[in-house]
Amino acid sequence: MSEKNCFYCGNKCNKLFNKKEYVKKTFTNYDIVKYPISNYICDDCVWAFGSDSKIIMIDKEIRSGNPRNYSWYITNNKKIAYTKKHIKELRELLLNIPEIPFKIVLSDSGQKHLLFRADFNFEKDNYIIQLEEEKILININKLKEYLYLADRLSAAIGKVAILDCEKISYIITIEKYYEDLTDYENWLKIYKKPMAKVAAWLSKNKEEASNEYKSINTRTI
After folding, report:
1. Residue range of the domain that includes 192
2. Are strands 126-131 and 102-106 parallel, antiparallel or unpaired?
3. Residue 5 CB partners (closer than 8 Å, separation 6+)
4. Domains: count for the chain
């Protein structure tokens, strides 16, 4: 059986799954599929668009459902799913990629099919992830710096406020919390950059970040 390219992701596939059966008439994103002239869909994309697909979680739990509802780490031989309860694990993943090639999808809303949009990476220190509909270049060293600052702000004003940090009430709260605005000023220089969105998404919540700050501060007294 001759190989064709997948309509969605562009990878080589057979002719088992015809586009007419697997692409809804309401589908409008022809501008972002990888091979729009193809009439075929690959096995992985059939799975990715399924409503009752097998899903293996990071904690080994096996579920069935729609893959779009999860974040993903995918390699040539594994598909590992995460929810927002696994922010700590996702953070560790982005800082310590286990193997290449890989693709990472961070799903915030669960409303969009993202897996076919994501690209495989072949480097562990500089790579691209898919955060919702946006492709974002990650540099490990810079991400560590961004996460440090995001955590510092979260400890003072909470995770939700990190990307909306110019409000005067937040500035006052941060200054009272740290008696200093150095970290805030450093974050202000970068928070509109794409990678800052990732850092904010992966940052620790207010309670966790605050407890860590207090713990470190206590040990240094």
Report:
1. 141-220
2. parallel
3. 11, 12, 13, 34, 35, 38, 40
4. 3
Contacts of 142 (CB under 8 A, 6+ apart): 195
No. of H helices and E strands in the chain? 8, 9
Which has the closest alpha carbon to 32: 5, 6, 9? 9
Confidence of residue 218 (pLDDT cuts 50, 70, 90): low
Residue 191 phi/psi, 5° resolution?
-70, -15
At CA 17, angle to CA 16 and CA 20, rounded to 5?
140
- Percent of the chain having pLDDT more than 70? 97
Token pair listed for 42: 């690959």
Last residue of a domain, one of 112, 132, 152: 132
CA distance 143 to 93: 12
Residues 119, 66 within the same domain? yes
